[in-house]
From TrEMBL:
This is Protein translocase subunit SecE. Component of the Sec protein translocase complex. Heterotrimer consisting of SecY, SecE and SecG subunits. The heterotrimers can form oligomers, although 1 heterotrimer is thought to be able to translocate proteins. Interacts with the ribosome. Interacts with SecDF, and other proteins may be involved. Interacts with SecA. Keywords: Cell membrane, Membrane, Protein transport, Translocation, Transmembrane, Transmembrane helix, Transport. InterPro entries: SecE_bac (IPR005807), SecE_sf (IPR038379), Translocase_SecE/Sec61-g (IPR001901). The chain crosses the membrane at residues 18-35, 41-60, 89-109. GO terms for cellular component: plasma membrane. It is found in: Membrane. It holds the Pfam family SecE.
Length: 127
């Protein structure tokens, strides 16, 4: 049976790195709005610098390393997928559209039949 452990940040250094990353992220937006009188270059420079710093700090934390490893594993798995040829993709798309059309027609006919049955025959509301 597979273990379903929840992994959390264990060390205080990792917790501090994550806290610094969050503070830098919030600081990026605060700096952007506080520097509105200094011009667009100062605003965007502060925003980008703080965001890059937050990403770097998060990247060196254990959570960041696990995220990068997950991304690499996902990319490796995506390369293993055998994608359908163009002809197969077009055929499958056509099958899906045809099925949706047939189901829509069936549901519309069922709705109209029940409407006719209940309102016209049973209740006699329509004249």
């Amino acid at each position: 049976m597979a273990s379903s452990e929840v992994q959390t940040v264990n060390t205080s250094a990792d917790k501090a790195k994550l806290a610094v990353a969050v503070v830098l992220l919030l600081g990026a937006f605060v700096a952007f709005y506080l520097l509105s009188g200094r011009g667009a270059l100062a605003q965007w420079g502060a925003l980008i610098a703080c965001l890059v710093a937050a990403v770097v700090v998060f990247g060196v934390s254990e959570s960041g390393k696990r995220l990068v490893a997950f991304g690499r594993d996902s990319w490796r798995e995506a390369k293993k997928v055998v994608w359908p040829a163009r002809k197969e993709a077009i055929q499958m798309t056509a099958y899906v559209f045809a099925f949706v059309f047939v189901m829509a027609l069936f549901l519309w006919l069922t709705d109209k039949t029940l409407e006719w049955l209940f309102y016209d025959l049973i209740l006699g509301w329509r004249k």
